[in-house]
Every structure is written in structure tokens, then in C-alpha cells.
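Entry under discussion copied across for reference:
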Amino acid sequence: MVSHSVENGVLVLAPQDGLRAEAADMLAALIADPVEVHAPMPAVIVVGAGTNPAAVDAVVRAHRMCRPTGVLLSVAAACASTRRLLRARAAEGGRNLVVHARTDIAITTACATGA
């Protein structure tokens, strides 16, 4: 459900599209677990264009779960409406989530900021 790799010292996670709403909790845990294991390595979650609101909620929930680790966690989403939804859902919980339009920029920024 979530693939992950390490690029330039940054953990890159890519959840699969097509998540059902009832699987959001499981997806949040599948994102948070590798982030915690690879801490303090910065992480970027790459969200696909077909991402539904349940997946967005899972990403925001994973961000909240990872806060205590102090890991720099950001999101890359090519779709503008997905970026807006991510920012809005994170703000609802009083959280600031860094959301980039391009994956390469997200990784470069995480690498530079996390160093």
C-alpha cells in the first residue's frame, strides 16, 4: 500500500491511489511506521493526482503521528486541488504541513533543511 525509498538522504514514501475511507487509519500507520524507523531522516510523502479525501486525511494523520519524533515531514502533490485540501485539513488540526508541487523540489528542500 506504501512504497518507500531513500533519495539523497531523504525517505520518500508513495502511497498507492484508490484508498477506501475505512483504510485511512491503516494507511496513516503504514506511512508513520517507516518515518519513525528512519528518524531523524527527513521524509517526503508523494501524493498522486488521483488521491481521494480519505488518503489526504491519512497523510495529515500520519503527519500528526510523526510530530513527536521531530522528523521533518513534507508532502509533494502535483495536483493543485490536492495541495489545497492537504493544507486545509492540516490547518484544521492546528498543524503546519509543508506541501510542494514537485517531488524533486520537496526532496531537495528536505535534504537541505534536514542537514
Notes: The chain has a mean pLDDT of 90. The chain has one domain: 2-114. Residues 24-37 form the longest helix (14 residues).
